[in-house]
Amino acid sequence: MRPTLDKSTTPIVTITTDFGEHFATAQMEGVLLGINPTVKIVNITDHVRPFNILEGSFILMQTSRFFPSGTIHVAIVDPGVGSKRRGLVIKTHKSYFIGPDNGLFMPIIKNQVFEWAIAIDEEHFPNKSNTFHGRDVFIKIAGFLSRGDDVSKLGDKIDLAALVPMDLHLDQIVHIDGFGNIKINRAALTVPFGTVVPVVHKEREFTARYERTFSDVGIGEWVLAVGSHDVLELAMNQGNASKVLGARVGDVVSVTEPDNVSSQTGPTLFEINN
Question: Are residues 154 and 20 in the same domain?
Fold first, then answer.
């Protein structure tokens, strides 16, 4: 099958970056509209933590599942820009993903059905800058794809096994929201609500109660709950858990279900269905 997009609906292109401001993203939007002025652009965020591939992957995975089939997702968390790292165009059963081959897309692919991937030959973009492939390569390909062009000529097809993996571990912090709530790579616990659970972050050991929601514990108390993204969250009711712990995305927060309660390890981020 030719790597093209169904032309029967208005194409949607999303943009996810760690740029920290909209200045660079606006340039990408301008390039995209110059190629296809009918496209609908959705800026997911410019505020992935700088160079944080893990957080960018989590944000994109959790957001992309709510978009219609055929959406084109461009993600630029690319600390290796200008190096020998490859650029990719990926097709799953639901969506297209365009960006660097640095593990950014692997959790998403493992939660969808992989169809094909193309390693972009950057020789097709001779005037690209050394430091802004988002504008000069990736968003252009999104534009071509959005208007129905065959993008197979832009590179060679590669197997899923050839893609750079994501280095992700159980209980690793994948996102910290604006309230300081800590999302970790674990799904629901298998213990009853109200169970007191041991937690370790670096050298700090404490307990948190596993509950349905944050307000089931007192103000300032620790709580573990499955939030709206279907992963376990460590929070302090009406407090800032990440600030209190000094936690960062990528840290491990070890959560141990008590031995005296019948339990099993919940699924990791890779096993959450889209």
Answer: yes
3-state helix, strand, coil in the chain (%, to 5): 25, 25, 50
Token digits of residue 47: 């505020």
Q: Which of the residue ranges 43-47, 75-79, 261-265 would you say has the lowest mean pLDDT?
A: 261-265
Whether pLDDT at 270 is above 70: no
Joined together, the tokens standing for residue 113 give 């059905």
Token pair of 31, please?
Answer: 């390039």
Q: Which residue has the tokens 């959450």?
A: 272
DSSP assignment string, 12-51:
EEEEEE--SSHHHHHHHHHHHHHH-TTPEEEEEES-SPTT
Distances (CA, A) of 88 to 6, 43, 63, 164, 247: 20, 20, 20, 11, 32
Closest CA to 261 of 222, 210, 186: 210
Helix 139-146 and helix 22-35, axial crossing angle in degrees, nearest 10: 30
Q: What is the tally of structural domains in the chain?
A: 2
What tens digit of pLDDT does each residue of 150-205 get?
A: 999 999 999 999 999 998 899 999 999 999 999 999 989 999 999 999 999 999 99
Which of 121, 141, 162 delimits the end of a domain?
162
Locate 267 and state its tokens.
């699924």
Whether 150 contacts 166, CB under 8 Å: no
How many H helices and E strands in the chain? 6, 14
Distance CA 108, CA 91 (A): 11
User: What backbone torsions phi and psi does residue 134 show, to the nearest 5 degrees?
Assistant: -60, -45
Residue 270: phi, psi to the nearest 5? -65, -20
Q: Which domain holds residue 251?
A: 173-271
